[in-house]
Each structure stands twice: as structure tokens, then as C-alpha cells.
Amino acid sequence: MQSMKNKLSLSIILTSLFIFLVNTKCFSQNNELLKIIGIPKLLQWENKPKSFKINKSSVTIISGEKTDMFRDPNVTYNTDNAPKLLFEADSNFVLSTAIEHAFQNKWDGGAIVLKKDSLNWIKCCFEKDYTGAKRIVTVVTKGVSDDCNSVEIKGNKVYFKLAKAGNVITIYYSLNGVNWLLVRHFTFDGKDLNVGFLSQSPTGKECKVTFSDIKYSAKKIKDPYFGE
């Protein structure tokens, strides 16, 4: 009888250990830290993508269907399930990148994201708008999202720059990554912010977005009109 109890106890211990190891492995995989050129910090997924690829000069993120990040002012559509590759933001910083995709479906987009939580965030998106145009679209969310549709771009590639100086945010776009034009300039309060890259496909099956020429500096810009 004692021998059977010992075997049963051993079996329970081994089973518990196996479950612990499996859960630990899954936790590790779900919280994998990644490194990309141009970013001096480790990055982590919030909502994993359909697939992704990191190489020496770019990051490609493929989002699945019905992926988006928006809080409708009409309160009829609130979602935050788009895959985002994020890292901890400094109190002052400048992040820039080229964003490129094929614009296959309405509202397909690639973006720089600055996020405090699901109710407070900023999205600088290169998006296929409701008319089919390739457009600079910025969304500032403080409980509810606004939706600022700006310049139409003719090609499939554009550059974005997001600068944070204290609680002041400035967003720029460029056609060549050299000459920058101001898109928005506003305040955004919050500590413990994360910043990074997003792919979305609200109406399509997927959206493949490539981010290249990625640059990040923990510095405070002196001139908001030129982003330097």
C-alpha cells in the first residue's frame, strides 16, 4: 500500500512538473524579446502577427484578417487587436522609419504607434483610405479616437517620424527621409509608454508591411517645425 502511495505521489509530482515546464515554455515563447537594427532596446509583441521577418535592414509584419486599432467616436467600433512590435519609450525621443505595403484592401495600413494603454495611444498610419487613396492618417486616442486624414501619397512607400519632447508630440512625413513636413503637433500625457510598429487589415485577409531605414534617438528636438 505504501509503495502504491509513493508511486502515486511521484506520478502527481512528475505530472505537475511537466505542466509547469510546458507553461513556462509557452510563456517564454509568448514573451520573446527581439532585437532589430536601429533600435537600442529589446522589442516585444503585443498581439502576435500572422508572420514576421527581421533582417539586417528591415522588419516585415503580416497581420491577419480583421485586425485594427481604433475607438470610434460613435462608440460602435472599438478594437485593439492589430499586431504591434513595441519597446519602452524614453521620455524624449525621435523615431523614424519608412513604411511600405501593397494597399490591397480598404484600411490596410502600417504605422508607428505610441501607446500607454488601450484607451490612450497614438497611431501614425500609411493607410488605404475609404476612397482607395494611399494616405497619411493619424489617430490620437484619449478614451475616444479622432481620425485625421491628411496628405495623399502616390507611391507605396513613405517615411514617418514621431518626436516626443516631454508631453509634446510632433508627427512628420517625408517622401525621401530627408525633407520632413509637419503633420500634427499636440500634447499627450502619460508615463510608461511603449512605441513601435503596427500592421493592420480591418477588411482584408492580411496586410504585409515592411518597415525599413529605422532610426531611434533618445533626444529632445529643438525645432518642432523641422523635427531636429
Question: What keywords describe this structure?
Answer:
single chain; 228 residues; 1 helix; Jelly Rolls; seven-stranded antiparallel beta sheet; disordered N terminus; 18 strands; nine-stranded antiparallel beta sheet; 2 domains; mainly beta
Task: Write a brief caption for the model.
This protein is mostly beta strands and 228 residues long.
Biggest sheet descriptor: 9 strands, antiparallel
Strand tally, please? 18
Q: What's the architecture of the largest domain in CATH terms?
A: Sandwich
**Residue share in helix:** 10-25%
Measured distance between first and last alpha carbons: 79 Å
CATH class of the largest domain, named Mainly Beta
Order of helices and strands: HEEEEEEEEEEEEEEEEEE
| Proportion of strand residues | over 45%
Describe what you observe in this structure.
With 228 residues, this protein is mainly β. It has two domains: 31 residues; 184 residues, Sandwich (Jelly Rolls), CATH 2.60.120. 13% of the residues lie in helices and 49% in strands. The protein is built from one helix and 18 strands. Strands 1, 2, 7, 9, 10, 11, 12, 13 and 17 form a nine-stranded antiparallel sheet that branches. Strands 3-4-18-8-14-15-16 form a seven-stranded antiparallel sheet, with no helix packed on it. A two-stranded antiparallel sheet has the order 5-6. β5 and β6 form a beta hairpin.
